[in-house]
Design brief:
The protein is α+β, with helices and mostly antiparallel strands. Helix content is 37%, strand content 23%. The protein has a five-stranded antiparallel β-sheet. Strands 7-6-10-9-8 form a five-stranded antiparallel β-sheet.
């Protein structure tokens, strides 16, 4: 049997209640609403009842005015719809309007209306929505705060993850065509259970299980052909005679192509995966980055600090890592030997600069000898460089060059072979050695230049002239290499 809805005009006639409209309005206000209006056939307010908190202060001036004039202009159309619907249907659906106030603050009110008889007045009952709107606004603000906190947390976790990777990832530079390892950091040696030196000349595929080699090889070839980074999860090698991963079964491998002159290379990062690392939370990464004694930082290609950990701020003598953001690495650390420039340049050229020794510190304070490792990062479109700095010992500005430093200074010159003529390298090596001997003589004689000259078998005038030429006694540290040799 088909249900046919009743015509609203066939509903019970409420005309008998017309004379009781004011009392009904007061009753509605007392039990279920905040305002009730009695509206005549012309849409004019004839009676009004309000609750304990009047909708618009003193509303006596509403009586005798068209209902539509008591609301804001953009909601008058809703009043017209309410009255029209009440005339045709007897009962209306809920509509929200705004009542303007003297203070300029609109008051939102939700109205429904009922017609009391075919020719009777309209009774409009309203609910003040200010409390509801306040709750909604607080909810929106709370939601925005939650979203802001979420994204801040995501950014923080991303920062910690990047710094963690810089400090712990195994990094190898691989010839893109032969897939042989040409450079590797200490973490790669540890991951492959061998020293980084022993990795050189080995195929990067030797480090993965035979079943994983086709996939890893395809990854490397794809990265080489497309010029874009790629990543894969592989199984670690464990057969005798291969590079063995210690107590680990899975590794995440990523490859990023780059050029060193005319040679195409791949920067390969490997990260051990275990049940523990899979479940590693952002808080655990943060704890490692915050507590490690190694200074870790990420810079742009020009050496400006993008992010760092607290140990880096401590090394720089800054109250927090935020003080280093956007500043040059040499500016915040101090780079008297111009070693940082050379290390960054080497990382850009070769992908890795591993275990380079440098003296850092400002001229007016203690200087610190650090071991620096740097590698290009594959994150994002812009070139970035991740560095770890491990403090070796503390030296002052007046401390003479030690034998190890002398050897490293000569080794630094050796890195310039092919870029600087031999005659210039020999001259620089001679100056470094001469400076070392002069400073050693001054140290033995507690700074007495005449006695130092005697120890070296030269006269005082020649000693003073050579000291000035070599900068002995100036703010420059021993074995400061000419900046032109590191470009």
């Amino acid at each position: 049997m088909t249900h046919v809805p009743k015509d609203p005009l066939d509903a019970p006639d409420l005309g008998a209640l017309s004379d009781l409209a004011p009392q009904l309005a007061q009753t509605f206000v007392s039990i279920a609403s905040d305002i009730a209006l009695v509206i005549d056939a012309d849409g004019v307010i004839r009676h009004m009842a309000t609750g304990a908190a009047p909708i618009a202060g003193s509303n006596a001036n509403w009586i005798g005015r068209p209902w539509a004039e008591t609301v804001s202009g953009d909601t008058r159309r809703k009043i017209e719809q309410l009255l029209s619907e009440a005339q045709t249907s007897g009962v209306t659906r809920r509509r929200e309007v705004n009542h303007p106030t003297v203070g300029g603050q609109d008051i939102p009110v939700a109205y429904t209306a009922i017609r009391l008889g075919r020719d009777g007045p309209v009774l409009a009952v309203g609910r003040d929505l200010r409390a509801v709107m306040a709750i909604q606004e607080r909810f929106v603000v709370a939601q925005q705060d939650m979203e802001r906190h979420y994204w801040q947390q995501r950014q923080s976790e991303s920062r910690y993850r990047l710094l963690f990777q810089v400090a712990t990832d195994a990094v190898m530079v691989v010839d893109a065509h032969t897939l042989l390892i040409v450079e590797a950091n200490a973490a790669a040696g540890a991951l492959f259970a061998r020293t980084g030196l022993n990795l050189l000349g080995k195929s990067v595929l030797d480090g993965v299980a035979r079943t994983s080699r086709p996939g890893v090889e395809e990854l490397l070839i794809t990265a080489r052909a497309s010029g874009r980074p790629a990543e894969i999860r592989a199984r670690a090698a464990s057969a005798p005679g291969t590079l063995v991963f210690t107590q680990l079964a899975a590794i995440d491998i990523s490859a990023t192509p780059f050029r060193a002159g005319e040679t195409m290379l791949l920067l390969v990062r490997a990260r051990a995966v275990s049940a523990a690392t899979e479940k590693q939370s952002g808080s655990e990464l943060a704890e490692f980055v915050e507590r490690t004694t190694d200074a870790v930082t990420i810079t742009d290609s020009s050496g400006r600090v993008l992010m760092a950990n607290p140990a880096f701020a401590t090394l720089c003598g800054l109250p927090s890592e935020a003080q280093a953001m956007g500043r040059g690495l040499a500016e915040v650390l101090g780079d008297p030997q111009h070693a940082l420039i050379s290390i960054l340049a080497e990382a850009r050229r070769h992908g890795i600069a591993e275990k380079r020794i440098a003296v850092v510190g400002q001229a007016d304070g203690h200087r610190c000898e650090v071991e620096i490792s740097a590698a290009i990062l594959a994150e994002g479109d812009q070139e970035r460089i991740g560095l770890t700095l491990r403090r070796c010992d503390t030296v002052t500005c007046s401390t003479p060059l030690q034998l190890g430093e002398l050897a490293r200074a000569i080794d630094s010159l050796a890195n310039q072979i092919g870029q600087v003529p031999l005659s210039e390298l020999l001259q620089e090596a001679s100056d470094i050695a001469e400076r070392h001997l002069i400073e050693a003589a001054l140290q033995r004689t507690q700074g007495d230049s005449e006695r130092a000259a005697e120890l070296l078998g030269i006269n005082s005038d020649n000693f003073d002239r050579r000291s000035r030429y070599l900068g002995v006694g100036s703010s420059l540290p021993t074995a400061a290499v000419d900046p032109k040799l590191i470009h």
